[in-house]
């Protein structure tokens, strides 16, 4: 069997360090906040190359809290790519604003920078580029449009820990950025977790307040916030895992290169890498007209695959009242029928990759 991802393999390789971190927490019974959370936040700012990191409960909350921090809400519009995890658009709706979808680039699958300006209205307040599948969106173009129209840029980095654009890590380009530490992400906790990063002191302070009941110091509730904190347990695990992130990303990149080398002359479309970027291959997504046949053939060989995502955001039932059709988002519409995510994870072996490719070549 070739799994789609293998977290057990990853965690058993560092089991003694995780055990030590958990034992420390059991001995102190310090489960919320404290030095362990502060320490991880510090380590993550260093890793990303940014001033502030504020841990929170998950990567959906982090987008939502950042929107609240920027006072985006009812009557406002926020541009989001037509292909992402639902969290990106859901967070916009949760604060009372309206997500406005922009089709994706046919080569890189991130927001199509040529279509952004058409979607801007007098109500548009922000753009949320998603560094989808581990690949940076075209930040130069996005930032220049944002500057021209006075829009905030909030980066959704949930799939792209350590990805780079022109040598700089994603998360450092917008006014602020969101990360998820969902277990399956390139850096994952042992449950739900996330964080917000920014170079802006005011945004950092306000986001931290909102995530912890609007408090500035204990029992001093300046505003009504919410409970969205990074659990100490998760922070401890993330601190153990962070030093390995670059190695694990390198293993993903190597695996992707191996897939692409073998499959380059096959009928499937392999992922394109945007020039001057480091794609960290959270997912290795191919396109084929014969997806169902291929997925069935792989399943038959006990090779797990997945689809990210079977329905592009505008076509989900939750947005059905908008009555979007194929012509509104032709690239996303075509993609949702052709994309397939192949197994990729740190530690995937050459033999496993060759086995997947062999089945693909034999099927198509
Ligand atoms: C995972 C993910 C999120 C949300 O993260 P959670 O921690 O699961 O809430 C947001 N955006 C994208 C693109 C994601 O992949």
pLDDT average, as an integer?
A: 97
Percent range of helical residues: 25-40%
Largest sheet: 7 strands, mixed
Summing up helix and strand content along with how strands pair, one would put the structural category as alpha/beta
Enumerate the spans where pLDDT stays under 50 for 5 or more consecutive residues. none
The arrangement of helices and strands along the chain is HHHEHEHEHEHEEEEEHHHEEHHEH
Q: Can you count the beta strands? A: 12
Q: Give the overall silhouette.
A: globular
User: With helices defined by DSSP (H or I, 4 residues minimum), what is the helix count?
Assistant: 13
Strand line-up across the major sheet: 1-9-8-5-4-2-3
Strand proportion: 5-15%
What radius of gyration results from the CA coordinates?
Answer: 20 Å
Give me the oligomer status: single chain
Q: In whole angstroms, how far apart are the ends?
A: 21 Å
Bound molecules: pyridoxal-5'-phosphate
């Amino acid at each position: 069997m070739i799994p789609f991802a293998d977290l057990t393999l990853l965690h058993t390789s560092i089991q003694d360090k995780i055990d030590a971190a958990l034992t420390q927490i059991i001995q102190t019974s310090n489960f919320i906040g404290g030095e362990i959370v502060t320490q991880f936040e510090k380590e993550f700012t260093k890793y990303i190359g940014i001033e502030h990191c504020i841990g929170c409960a998950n990567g959906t909350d982090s987008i939502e809290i950042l929107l609240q921090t920027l006072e985006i809400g009812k009557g406002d519009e926020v541009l989001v790519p037509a292909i992402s995890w639902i969290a990106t658009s859901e967070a916009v709706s949760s604060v009372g604003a309206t997500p406005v979808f922009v089709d994706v680039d046919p080569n890189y699958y991130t927001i199509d920078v040529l279509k952004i300006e058409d979607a801007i209205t007098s109500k548009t307040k922000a753009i949320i580029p998603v560094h989808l599948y581990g690949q940076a969106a075209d930040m130069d173009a996005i930032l220049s449009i944002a500057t021209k129209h006075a829009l905030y840029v909030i980066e959704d980095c949930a799939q792209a820990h350590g990805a780079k654009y022109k040598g700089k890590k994603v998360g450092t380009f917008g006014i602020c950025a969101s990360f998820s530490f969902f277990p399956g992400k390139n850096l994952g906790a042992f449950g739900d977790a996330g964080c917000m990063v920014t170079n802006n002191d005011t945004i950092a302070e306000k986001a931290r307040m909102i995530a912890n009941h609007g408090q500035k110091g204990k029992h001093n509730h300046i505003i009504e916030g919410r409970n969205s904190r990074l659990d100490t347990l998760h922070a401890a695990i993330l601190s153990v895992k962070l030093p390995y992130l670059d190695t694990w990303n390198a293993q993903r990149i190597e695996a992707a290169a191996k897939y692409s080398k073998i499959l380059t002359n096959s009928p499937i479309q392999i992922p394109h890498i945007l020039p001057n970027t480091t794609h960290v291959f959270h997912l290795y997504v191919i396109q084929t007209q014969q997806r169902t046949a291929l997925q069935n053939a792989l399943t038959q060989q006990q090779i797990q695959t997945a689809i990210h995502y079977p329905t592009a955001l505008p076509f989900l039932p939750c947005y059905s009242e908008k009555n979007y059709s194929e012509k509104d988002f032709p690239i996303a519409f075509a993609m949702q029928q052709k994309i397939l995510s192949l197994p990729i994870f740190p530690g995937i072996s050459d033999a496993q990759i060759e086995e997947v490719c062999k089945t693909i070549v034999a099927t198509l």
